[in-house]
Write a structure and sequence with these properties.
The protein is α/β, with parallel strands linked by helices. Helices cover about 40% and strands about 20% of the residues. The chain is built from five helices and ten strands, in the order H-E-H-E-H-E-H-E-E-E-E-H-E-E-E. A six-stranded mixed β-sheet has the order 4-3-2-6-7-8, sandwiched between helices. It comes from Oleispira antarctica. InterPro entries: DUF6436, Thioredoxin-like_sf.
């Protein structure tokens, strides 16, 4: 009787393992179909290909901020509270917060115009004074995707615009790439180089519109 039970137990383990693989594969397929998309599509606002136009889009938010401190760069994080992809980009966002103190890098959250006030309040409570939250103006509804960020120098020169990374899990070739850009802006090296507009690729993004 015990000898007959052993093949049955092995069969049950194999069946459960196969079932788990199928469920996992279906979950990944759903995720890719639902959230894996181009950061910017051919019919999106063409301003977000052009550094000068992006800088103009950011100007109304600078008016709501104090002037940057000497040597302080600004990170604008475009945030939809209901976007599942926020969790995937969190690693890159957290690294930037950990790599720089507030005097080196100020964090400004640009919340989607329709973000519930309760979500904004909870975000501020969790992060204290480390970040500021500004509700996006209606004109920003043409932003192609979220999460996204812009890194801007002390003199409001745009250094980077685009996502935190590409791919289903927001990977990048070098995890410290964005931190390197902040350091280049702080040292003045980025002023000698063109702005990095990094918008061509697919990843986990939510439509902003």
């Amino acid at each position: 009787m015990q000898q007959n039970d052993k093949p049955m137990a092995n069969w049950l383990i194999i069946t459960l393992f196969s079932f788990w693989i199928i469920i996992t594969a279906l979950g990944l397929w759903w995720f890719q179909q639902a959230k894996l998309k181009s950061f910017i599509d051919f019919d999106d606002d063409p301003r977000f290909y052009q550094p000068a136009q992006i800088s103009q889009v950011l100007q109304p938010y600078f008016y709501q901020l104090e002037p940057a401190l000497a040597g302080q760069q600004t990170l604008f994080h475009f945030w939809r509270s209901d976007c599942i992809c926020n969790r995937i980009s969190q690693r890159h966002f957290s690294r930037l917060i950990n790599d720089f103190n507030p005097q080196q890098l100020r964090i400004v959250i640009i919340a989607h115009p329709d973000t519930p006030q309760q979500d904004i309040n909870e975000l501020q409570q969790l992060n204290g004074n480390r970040l500021q939250v500004i509700r996006a103006l209606p004109e920003l509804k043409t932003l192609p995707s979220s999460p996204a960020l812009a890194i801007v120098g002390e003199q409001q020169q745009l250094g980077y615009f685009g996502p935190y990374g590409f791919g289903a899990f927001c990977t990048s070739n070098e995890d410290g790439f964005l931190s390197s850009l902040v350091n280049q802006l702080a040292s003045g090296q980025q002023e000698e180089s063109p702005t990095f507009i990094n918008v061509i690729g697919e990843g986990c993004f939510c439509s902003w519109q």
